[in-house]
Design brief:
Strand order of the largest sheet: 3-2-1-4-5-6
Helix content: 25-40%
Shape: globular
Distance between the termini: 34 Å
Strand content: 15-25%
Protein name: Proton-conducting membrane transporter
Organism: Weissella sagaensis
CATH superfamily: NAD(P)-binding Rossmann-like Domain
Mean pLDDT: 96
Order of helices and strands: EHEEHEHEHEEHEH
Number of strands: 8
Radius of gyration: 17 Å
InterPro entries: NAD(P)-bd_dom_sf (IPR036291)
Low-confidence stretches: none
């Protein structure tokens, strides 16, 4: 299969690409990001890294429409005035651009969207942005649109979420604190394995929301 990752050079994108590279399946893997390879070190290989701007027409359009699966990891957690980022510009618009392209140009490509199971109240707008993409994708692509609902995806590579992720796991599974389940901590390696399964048409608990 030809699998394209939007935001493939980021934390989630690199984890997902590693999952596919380490799987038993033989895929053609493509990363679409603003930087391409840039000057980043130790990127997952073998992957074709392309620099694109989803706000303008370009080679990304033919890449996504000839892919079997497109996985959207593009987005921000918190907007920044200094960096001139916003949910609309950096999370919603790129997804809608690709969804529109898939709706018009192909009836085969599936779109896997990395949503969120839950988040603290401070991130209500983050969740609203995710839901806007879900509503749009389901309307435009019907069952070709697949939303995935992880909580905190943690990994030793990022101590800022690794330690909270471990503590959440202990609280949920060790101390059996039920209301914390909605934050759904998941190791990045496990998350990536689930994405590989979903891409292969297998079931995954991450496609269901935990309340």
């Amino acid at each position: 299969m030809k699998i394209t990752i939007m935001g493939g050079t980021g934390y989630l994108g690199q984890g997902i690409l590693a999952g596919f590279v380490n799987s038993k399946y033989n895929h053609e893997l493509i990363s679409l990001s603003r930087s391409g390879m840039g000057n980043k070190q130790n990127l997952v290989m073998p992957v074709s890294y392309l620099a694109v701007d989803f706000s303008h027409d370009g080679n990304w359009q033919s890449v996504v429409t000839t892919s079997d699966i497109v996985i959207d990891c593009v987005g921000i957690l918190i907007p920044s005035k200094r960096k001139q980022t916003s949910y609309e510009k950096n999370s919603i618009e790129p997804a809608k651009k690709v969804i529109d392209q898939l709706q018009v140009k192909t009836d085969k490509t599936k779109f896997i969207f990395i949503a969120a199971n839950n988040a603290p109240r401070l991130l209500d707008d983050y969740l609203k942005a995710k839901q806007e993409v879900i509503d749009y994708g389901q309307k435009k692509l019907d069952n070709r649109f697949i939303a995935v609902y992880p909580g905190m995806v943690y990994d030793l590579q990022r101590l800022g979420n690794f330690i909270p992720g471990i503590l959440l796991n202990i609280a949920i599974n060790g101390f059996k604190i039920p209301f914390l389940k909605k934050y759904r901590p998941v190791k990045r390696s496990v998350f990536s394995q689930e994405i590989v399964k979903i891409a292969a048409g297998q079931s995954s608990p991450l496609t269901k929301i935990i309340r």
